[in-house]
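Two records follow; treat each independently.
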Amino acid sequence: MPPVISDADLWSEMKSGSEKAFSSLFMKYHVSLVSYGKSITQHHYIVGDCIQDVFADIWLYRKTISTPDSVRAYLLSGLRKRIARKLERDQIFKHATDIEHVEFSASFTVLDELITNEEMRSQVTYLNAAINQLSPRQKEALYLRYYQQLSVDQIAEMMQMNTQSVSNLLHRAIKQLRNLWKGEIPQLMILLVLTHCLSTDV
C-alpha cells in the first residue's frame, strides 16, 4: 500500500510546481466538491465549471497563495464564493450581492441498500424527515459539521457568520431534531444520514 501523503505535503509540492500533487488534490476532493456544489444551487450545470475555476486559480497563483489550515475548508469555501459570484453575474439571483443568497437545497433520503436492519431503516427514515424540516442554513451547517467534518470556526468563515452564531445554529438544529425525535439522537445515526443519504436530485 502506498504511503498516504498529507494535504499539507500535497499543497507544498503543488506550490513547487508538481502537477502530480495538483492532480491528487483535485481527485481527492472532486466528489465532495460536486456534492456540496449541487447542494447550494439548483443550477447544477455551473458546478463543474466553478470547480474547474477554483483549481485553475490555485494553479495560477500557486506561488503566492499560503498553505491553508484546512485544504478541505479552503476548497469548499472557494467553491461557495465562486458559485455565488457566478449566480450574481448571470443574474440568476438579480438582487444577490454576496454569498448570503446561496441557499443549501439538498434533501436527505434513505439509501435502502446501506441499511439491512428494518428497525434502523425506520429510524433513519424518520430522522431524514426531521432533518428535511430544518431551515436551509441549519441543514448546511449540519452538513459541513458532520459530513465535511469542518470546525465551527471554519463553518463560520464559509457562511460569513461569527463563531457563536454558528454554534447557536447547530445547537438549535440538534435541539429541533431531538424535539421531533422525542429523545436523544445517537450521533452515529446523524453521521449515517448525512454521510450516506444526501440527495441532490442529479
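The next record belongs to a different protein.
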Amino acid sequence: MVSVNTDHAGPDDLAALRAAFPDGEPLGWDAVRAFEAEHGIVLPEPYRTFVAEICDGSCTGPPDFGLEPLAELPDDWGDGRPERVPAQPFPLTEPWVWEDDPRPEEEIEALLGPVYDHGSIVLGTDGCGMYWHLVVTGPHRGHIWNISGEGAAPFGAEFGHTTAEAGFAGWVRHWAGGKPWYDK
C-alpha cells in the first residue's frame, strides 16, 4: 500500500485544494482542534488544513451531493443509527463485498457497524447509499474509502479501478479533473 503523508500538507496539494474550492468557507483552527479533542483524533493532512483554512463543506462535489462539513452527515444517513466513533480504528485493510460473503447474515451485520461508524469521517454521498469516508485511524489512515450497501473499497490507483492518487488531495484532484470515479 502506498503511504499517504498524513502529517504534513504539501504545498502542491493545498494549491490544488484551493483551486478546486476557491470560494470555500473555512472552519478555522480553533474549531478543528475542538473537534479533534472531542473525538480523540487528529485529522490527517491535507484534509486537516483544508477544513481549517480553505473550506468546511461545499454544495458542489466531490462527491455528487456535495462535500459535508466536518461535523455533519449526509441527509440520507438515517436516524437511529449507532453513534459514530472516529477514535476506534477503521476495521478494513482490503475491499470487502459483503453481498457476496458466504457467512451468515447475523455475522456480517455484526461486522458492518464498525465499517460504517469506526475510524472515519463521512465526506459525503453519491446517493443510493454510497458514501465516501476519510479514514482517520487505523492502518488506512488518510485514505478514502467508498462504502455502499454492497461493500467497501479503498480509492486510489494502487487499489485498482481508478487512475487517481490515493488520499484526500488525490480524490479531489480526480473529481476536479472531471474524471469518473472508476476510470480504469
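Discussion point: Residues 11-69+92-176 form a domain with the SMI1/KNR4-like fold (CATH 3.40.1580). How would you locate this feature using only the C-alpha cell line?
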